Amino acid sequence: MDITGTIESAEIQYKQILEDFFISRYNEKSLPSHGIKHHRRVWNYSKELLKLLPLNDSFQISELTSNLIIASYLHDIGMSVDSGTKHGIYGRKLCIEFLSKNNLPENNFRNALYAIEYHDDKNYNNDIFRNDLLRILSVSDDLDAFGYIGIFRYSEIYLTRSVSPEKLGSLILDNVEKRFVNFEKTLGSETSMVQKHIKRYKIIHNFFKKYDEQLPSYHFGTLNPYSYCGVIEIIQLIMINGLQLENFLTESDKYSDDPMILSYFAELKKELSDY
């Protein structure tokens, strides 16, 4: 069976039961940036990478694919328990619960469990990342941190972790640069996939560079958010009021008439529909 057929077979066997399990355990309202749509996008990126990357591991492509779809769909499910750095450990435990519920032998999915536990190591430890499955999952997860989607996802998770707006930009810039360097290192610089995501990396990088430039003169908590810092203030408003992002995007002009803010949310809406 070719790689396309192997992917289709894995989706037929696992995709629906993974989505059902994820939705049953994860509260989308508490952290929508890491909900089911994030995991669907990560799986789609993983499928692309499976077709592009030379693989080092000796296990068969069908075994790799089966482990990969499970890791793609459950890597952040631990956020339902802990939105911090321990979510990989909780994700591993929930994956074991998924396997048991569906009568899937744990020994057959050790690579998925390993990848779920360690996927958020953004120091890219070389010993860990020799594992093909973890390498693909990590890069796929990184790709969902770029672009207009990445701006929202980073802001929501860092603000959830009580990072102050004053520190937000510098922390995100440092983290997203590590992700991009790992992405380029993994794929090289010549593929069309790299060229596409260079543009998305520049979107988030340029946004937070300008955010940091505006920060010293911006006062959070005013009645009229504006420009780059204003985007983050609106994201805070979405979080505080428990607004559903999809609903907000249909009426974002109710919350601001600032051109920069309206432009950002229009681009976010478009990117979400594209991906």
Description:
The protein is an all-alpha fold and 275 residues long. It has two domains: 3-141, Orthogonal Bundle (Hypothetical protein af1432); 149-274, no CATH class. It contains twelve helices and no strands. Helix 10 (227-240) packs across helix 12. The longest helix is centred in the first third of the chain and has 23 residues, at 3-25. It is globular and about 55 Å long.
> Which CATH architecture of the largest domain is right?
Orthogonal Bundle
First and last CA, distance: 28 Å
Report the CATH topology name of the largest domain: Hypothetical protein af1432
Residue windows where pLDDT falls under 50 for at least 5 positions = none
Number of strands: 0
What sort of overall outline do the alpha carbons produce when their principal axes are compared?
globular
**Rg of Cα set:** 19 Å
The description of the largest β-sheet is: none
Mind telling me the CATH class of the largest domain?
Answer: Mainly Alpha
Annotation field: number of helices? 12
Fourth-tier CATH superfamily name of the largest domain = Hypothetical protein af1432
Mean pLDDT: 91
Q: Number of domains in the coordinates? A: 2
Kindly name the structural category. mainly alpha
Report the helical percentage: 55-70%
What can be said about this structure in brief?
This protein has 275 residues and is mainly α.
